[in-house]
């Protein structure tokens, strides 16, 4: 099961079983509800954006270990980053899913998801939270209105 | 019947997936195709291909004979009174939509009722939601029992004098429940409603007699019964089909065309606008030959035994939950493995060469009723064996162990 060990590394299972920043904000500036209609995974991401900086990020949702651990990691990765940096991270995550090397500032946990690249059916699980981030940050800048499921 | 010998008829099943012999347990999604079906389609394209119903030339006649011959096979297979009551469609979804767009929208009035159940596949749910919205009719649900069955008392209570259509699956694609269609048809008719049956999950697995069931419309998908994708059928009682207006207009379905008006061909062709899925129909005909040679009763008996065995083996795994009734069911087992998400289960099984489905199975209201967001499903067919079930059970134990501890790296 070494292929599986690559997919489900310890750091991923840790984020799945003990998710970081799970919950709701009471001072959010944007909420993004995204679901994946083909598999039923869903995420609700709340961001507090202030002076172009992601001050806080929390999520709730349902899904597999990959989608939920990815959401947990994403919130940790973008906390305190500028909107531009957050969008750049979303781009970096897309690159990671294509099998390209990518970094996420000084936050290394996300790189554990690189193994998902070998499981094409699971890539959409991993990208759900990052797509929510992208929409949230863009919405926060006023590009998108009323983003819903 | 001998599933091991039958398996040798299916070329795709003899391969390794991720280093393990393939165990294909996603038959409720689509079944694999025997050599005879693949050959029939190949032969059609290599020898008989032409457009149907118009060529004066020899190939045109051969193609028409092949296409109409397939229709006769479907009619015989379902014990329909006449082949003109069989309309070829893209599949069950299209067949149900023809009834919902044709019959339902043309006959329903405000205050009428459509009755379905909470176990329906989206394809037997959304067409009725839309027909209800378009006509002002009310959509009502027959409630489910805790084991995922419905009672005839609830059918009696839900179907009223206002009910015009009862639409229900013969077999559930998630729970495996087999619904008592003949009895439900009797209740529907007594109250003045017609009954529309989603036969996608029943037709491949058990003998179906549309006259004995006394159903008004019956639908099937070819690809779930060893046939190709893109072909299915709608059976309807003759008078109902006669009274229905066509849904699609164009070539093939017309009688006379004038500048401002046209008339339609007779049944079944008035519902088959455009060049049909000729090769698909030929493939479906070959699939029916294949299934009849084995015998639908034999297939059903084999699947009942295999499902019982699967329920026994899977129930023995601590923390595993099986959904649906324990008897009167078709050959599938829907389950969850503790708090391991079904996607993770399916991924681990795939690395062991085992194909199962994970997700909401196109039945989101049913998932909510089960109070889960998704489930895993193993579904069987004539080529599956107890050995396949053993491989599934062993891999599920491994999956549990895998997620029970954290791999050390």
TrEMBL record, chain A:
<protein>
    <submittedName>
        <fullName>SUF system NifU family Fe-S cluster assembly protein</fullName>
    </submittedName>
</protein>
<comment type="similarity">
    <text>Belongs to the NifU family.</text>
</comment>
<dbReference type="Pfam" id="PF01592">
    <property type="entry name" value="NifU_N"/>
</dbReference>
<feature type="domain" description="NIF system FeS cluster assembly NifU N-terminal">
    <location>
        <begin position="8"/>
        <end position="125"/>
    </location>
</feature>
<dbReference type="InterPro" id="IPR002871">
    <property type="entry name" value="NIF_FeS_clus_asmbl_NifU_N"/>
</dbReference>
<dbReference type="GO" id="GO:0016226">
    <property type="term" value="P:iron-sulfur cluster assembly"/>
</dbReference>
<dbReference type="GO" id="GO:0051536">
    <property type="term" value="F:iron-sulfur cluster binding"/>
</dbReference>
<dbReference type="GO" id="GO:0005506">
    <property type="term" value="F:iron ion binding"/>
</dbReference>
From TrEMBL, chain B:
<dbReference type="InterPro" id="IPR015424">
    <property type="entry name" value="PyrdxlP-dep_Trfase"/>
</dbReference>
<keyword id="KW-0808">Transferase</keyword>
<dbReference type="InterPro" id="IPR010970">
    <property type="entry name" value="Cys_dSase_SufS"/>
</dbReference>
<dbReference type="GO" id="GO:0030170">
    <property type="term" value="F:pyridoxal phosphate binding"/>
</dbReference>
<dbReference type="InterPro" id="IPR015422">
    <property type="entry name" value="PyrdxlP-dep_Trfase_small"/>
</dbReference>
<comment type="similarity">
    <text>Belongs to the class-V pyridoxal-phosphate-dependent aminotransferase family. Csd subfamily.</text>
</comment>
<dbReference type="Pfam" id="PF00266">
    <property type="entry name" value="Aminotran_5"/>
</dbReference>
<protein>
    <recommendedName>
        <fullName>Cysteine desulfurase</fullName>
        <ecNumber>2.8.1.7</ecNumber>
    </recommendedName>
</protein>
<dbReference type="GO" id="GO:0031071">
    <property type="term" value="F:cysteine desulfurase activity"/>
</dbReference>
<dbReference type="InterPro" id="IPR020578">
    <property type="entry name" value="Aminotrans_V_PyrdxlP_BS"/>
</dbReference>
<comment type="function">
    <text>Catalyzes the removal of elemental sulfur and selenium atoms from L-cysteine, L-cystine, L-selenocysteine, and L-selenocystine to produce L-alanine.</text>
</comment>
<dbReference type="InterPro" id="IPR015421">
    <property type="entry name" value="PyrdxlP-dep_Trfase_major"/>
</dbReference>
<dbReference type="GO" id="GO:0006534">
    <property type="term" value="P:cysteine metabolic process"/>
</dbReference>
<feature type="domain" description="Aminotransferase class V">
    <location>
        <begin position="23"/>
        <end position="392"/>
    </location>
</feature>
<dbReference type="InterPro" id="IPR016454">
    <property type="entry name" value="Cysteine_dSase"/>
</dbReference>
<keyword id="KW-0663">Pyridoxal phosphate</keyword>
<dbReference type="InterPro" id="IPR000192">
    <property type="entry name" value="Aminotrans_V_dom"/>
</dbReference>
